[in-house]
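Field reference: sequence -> structure
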Amino acid sequence: RTDDPVTALSAGHPAYVIYTSGSTGRPKGVVVAHRNVVRLFDATRKSFGFGPEDVWTLFHSYAFDFSVWEMWGALLHGGRLVVVPYEVSRTPGAFLDLLAEHGVTVLNQTPSAFYQLAQADADASPSGRELALRTVVFGGEALQPSRLADWYRRHPDDTPTLVNMYGITETTVHVTYQPLTRQHATAAASVIGVGITDLRTYVLGPGLELVAPGVVGELYVAGGGVARGYLNRPGLTAERFVADPYAPEPGGRMYRTGDLVRWNQDGALEFVGRADQQVKIRGFRIEPGEIENVLTDHPDVAEAAVVVRGEQSGDARLIAYVVARGALCGAEARKFARDRLPDHMVPAAVVVLDRMPLTANGKLDKAALPEPDFTVPRPGREARTPREQIVCDLFAQVLGLPRVGVDDGFFDLGGHSLLATRLIARLRSAFGVELELRALFEGPTPAAVAALLDTAGPARPPLTARESPSVLPLSSAQRRLWFLHKMEGPSATYNIPLVVRLGGELDREALRAALGDVVARHESLRTVFPEADGTPFQRVLDRVSVELPVTGVTETELPDALKSAARYPFDLATEIPLRAELFRLTPDRHVLVLVLHHIAGDGWSLGPLAADLTRAYTARVEGRAPE
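Structure field:
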């Protein structure tokens, strides 16, 4: 009967809606049909052989799609489902007892949760406790295979079988299947395997072209697991669920995951990272997972997580968090990383935790990681002379610390090469001497630096205003960037974007005029780089008209709009190295994007640029002349 709401349902109707976090902070509800869930277990039946004798755990919140695999897996195979109390799920030792007591055979875990469970298992062995586990399925997070080495050492018969399954809510829990062996624990790459039999997985470049094996590209998923879309979000659905140009029949869709992968030589997919999780520190692009892998190579490190935090000095710093197996201090772990990583990848601090904080879904809770403490708990020897005291004070100012002892190491307190150049400049101003940067690396304490001041040469002459030559040459750094620009053509490789959200009433004309004021004040912002007879030179323009185009966008459209703005290709021969664009979200909410080419500044330059623009805009709004 078509008027019966029960009999009128079909396999294509929604089975559930699960919300996932969005880049804008607004959760989005993923609508998944009944047939998607049923086909998931049909497609994986031969791989696992689940049956009525299996005992599963409901470890995860039903608001996390991993629970779909747990609940429906037990129900569709006639198995038993053990609901894990929340307190037990957060107490690895108690969870081990539950697994043994109920004879659990199928365990589903995020890697973060399993690392803690494995550590509890190691701490309790030998306990006489017998586990009935035959299958452990990983999902929800990227797996670091090296962290499984200790588990395999303690389970030489390779029981239970460990399986890595990459997946996302928008493609119904799981996408790939990869049984793990002890050989995988010696590999650096996180192998996620091949697609489930009824799915198609593509590794595509920016033009949706198929990339060659070994080349990193974005993962797209098509086939029976693709969800219907986002609940009441047609624009976002159209953005992420796109047409499949490789579908066997017209009209197919594929989901754009935002994850970077590559095909390895064995024909399996390797997970590289999120396209939006690379970080840029002092001009270097860094994948935090690479640092985590190095830290977990330390025999006393059970887990590691690396995040970026902003500091009082205005710098972004890498902070590492580790869970130790034994007596391990943060300084020892940091030295271990420093011996194996380039300077720009060494964490400014390593914080030792008893346990990594987890979210309700069992993933790492980055928001709950504590702030690092750079203060010196027991300062050493006090300064003996006024000179030593001044050097200590300069160390503290540059590092953003309340005080520094005379024997404290600059780099042990979170210093790095960029801060080192600032310290050298402050020493020059304070004492009128010129120290080489190398001296600070050779003797990184206030005592060592103070001892060098008597033998240091006089400071270089201060910069003074002079008449510019008729042809202004490029600096060595500018020449390098100009050469790359000529070789590659206009590109966004050396763009430095600054994004500022503006709330309240905005005077757009005053903002545009303020931009003109800032450009007029700084010659570097109104310089172009033409060439004469094959030789580049700087031409400082007397007057520049600064444009400020305004575009209306939604929050959903904003990320792509920002990305497009940041990738603007400058023509250095004819365009000034600064571009501005304003995006209007609502009448009282705007986002300003400033894109600075590296030939005119660096990451540190963004601070003074933003401050100057703020002062100029305030003056324009108040009707004053800009300072």
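Note: The mean pLDDT is 87.
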